[in-house]
Amino acid sequence: MLEGIVRESISSKATKALRKDGYLIANIYAKGLANINAAFKVNDFLRTVKNKDSLKFQVKVAGKTYEVVVVEYQKHPVTNELKHVDLKVVLPDVVSKYYIPVVASGTPIGLKNKGLLLISKRRLAVKCAGKDLPNSFVIDVNPLDLDDSVLVRDIPVPAGVSMVEPASVAVLGVVKAK
């Protein structure tokens, strides 16, 4: 479990001091919950996020444990160092908006015909309660040939989950290599 500290001050001077000590600045929020300004050790955070087996993971701040998902992160434009992360608390019975990753499984037929697999949407927006939150959308790309694509409406959606994206948006497809 990832453990963090509560930031007493949110001033830029205090933020710079925390970053210098190896901390990642984070905001934790949810509907009906007061925002928590927190900080985590950068290496611990990266290790936890890379080794998690589901979309949500647990963090402990100020003695309380929260199940969270990463909503957004910011990196330094030159060094690519992680600077800030927004975490949303997953509440089991509250319907909220989440971004679910898209995973392509298999090898398309179109790759043998000099095509390229193009993933245009890496994450899809959905609305669901925390208990219905899927880990990812796994899409079988084996039957795709040149100029074939998978639209949002073609993706099977679990019960209790509704898509926010328009149904006619292409998620991935096989295009001809130039």
UniProtKB/TrEMBL annotation:
Annotated keywords: Ribonucleoprotein, Ribosomal protein, RNA-binding, rRNA-binding
Keyword Ribonucleoprotein tagged: yes
Gene Ontology biological process terms in this record: translation
GO cellular component: a single term: cytosolic large ribosomal subunit
Domain of life: Bacteria
Domain Large ribosomal subunit protein bL25 L25: 2-87
Gene Ontology molecular functions: 5S rRNA binding; structural constituent of ribosome
InterPro entries with a match to the protein in the record: Rbsml_bL25/Gln-tRNA_synth_N, Ribosomal_bL25/Gln-tRNA_synth, Ribosomal_bL25_b-dom, Ribosomal_bL25_C, Ribosomal_bL25_long, Ribosomal_L25_dom, Ribosomal_uL5_bac-type
Protein's UniProt keywords contain Metal-binding: no
Every Large ribosomal subunit protein bL25 beta domain range: 99-177
Family label: Belongs to the bacterial ribosomal protein bL25 family. CTC subfamily.
Function: This is one of the proteins that binds to the 5S RNA in the ribosome where it forms part of the central protuberance.
Subunit and partners: Part of the 50S ribosomal subunit; part of the 5S rRNA/L5/L18/L25 subcomplex. Contacts the 5S rRNA. Binds to the 5S rRNA independently of L5 and L18.
PANTHER family hit by this protein: RIBOSOMAL PROTEIN L25/GLN-TRNA SYNTHETASE, ANTI-CODON-BINDING DOMAIN-CONTAINING PROTEIN, RIBOSOMAL PROTEIN L25_GLN-TRNA SYNTHETASE, ANTI-CODON-BINDING DOMAIN-CONTAINING PROTEIN
The protein's name: Large ribosomal subunit protein bL25
Organism for this UniProt entry: Candidatus Campylobacter infans
